[in-house]
C-alpha cells in the first residue's frame, strides 16, 4: 500500500467521482489513477467504488470506511512533514489562507503586513472563494486555515473559533432620499432597489431574516460576490447598497455616503476554521493571534483537540 494510492482515492472522491478530473488535478493520467485504485482494492480485498463499465458511479459502504481512514492517514503524513519543517526551519515555510473577498480586501491587509514583517521567509498564499469553497480547501489539506462568516459549520472535520462581530451599512449616492430620513427602517429600505451580496456570501442570511420577520420583501435588483462590485453599481444608479461595514472606506468611497444599519440587522460573526487533528507550525498560531488577538496558542490547541460538536446541541 502506498500513500500515492490513498491520495488518488481521496482526489477521485473530491472530484465528484470524475476520474479524468482527478487525474488532471493530480497532474497524472487517468489510466494511472484507475490502475492504482484497482491495486489498492486488490490489496484490501474489497471494492471501493461501484463502476458502470469504466465509469465510477458511486462509493461502496466499505469504500466509505476506507475513505475515512485514508484521509486520516494522509493528514498524519502531512503532520509528520510539517513537524519536521517546524524543527528544521522554524521561521520559514508557507502559510495558505483560504478566505472570502471581503476578508482579503478589507480586513487582512494590515494583518498580512505585520505577519510579513515578522516572518519574511514565510511565503503567504491567499485562496479566495465563497464560504463553502474555502472550508473545503481546509478539509482537503490545500489550505492551513479558512476565514469566513457562513458555511463553516457544515464540515464536521473543522474546528471553528470566533474572531469578531460585524454589521452592515447602507451605501448610496449623496442625494438619495434614504440618507435624509431621521430614522432608517426596513419598510423604507424595501421601497427602493437594493444591491447586496450573493446568497452564499457575507451575512446575506441575516439580511433575508430581518425582512422576513417583518413580513417584507426587499427589492433586490442585483447581487454580487463582493462589495467593490456592489459599490460600482450603486455609483451608476442601479440602487442602494447593503454591504459589510468594513467594506466602506471614507477616502476611497468619497463619492458615496454610508449610514449605519446595525439597528436593523443582527450582527454576523467572522470565524477561523482549522482541520481537526492538524499539526500547525508556530507561525500559523502567530498569524491567527494577529488576526484575532483573543485566540492564543492554548485556545487554538484546545479547539483542535476537541471532539466534533453535536449539531443537536447547537442553537440555530
From TrEMBL:
Q: Which InterPro entries match?
A: CysB_PBP2, LysR_HTH_N, LysR_subst-bd, WH-like_DNA-bd_sf, WH_DNA-bd_sf
PROSITE patterns on file: HTH_LYSR (PS50931)
Its BP terms in the Gene Ontology are: cysteine biosynthetic process
Q: Which residues form a coiled coil?
A: none
- Where does the HTH lysR-type domain start and stop, copy by copy? 1-58
Keyword Hydrolase included in the entry's annotation: no
Q: Which Pfam families match?
A: HTH_1, LysR_substrate
GO MF, one annotated term: transcription cis-regulatory region binding
Keywords in alphabetical order = DNA-binding, Transcription, Transcription regulation
**What family, per the record?**
Belongs to the LysR transcriptional regulatory family.
Q: What is this protein called?
A: DNA-binding transcriptional dual regulator, O-acetyl-L-serine-binding
Give the organism the record lists.
Answer: mine drainage metagenome
Q: Which gene encodes it?
A: cysB
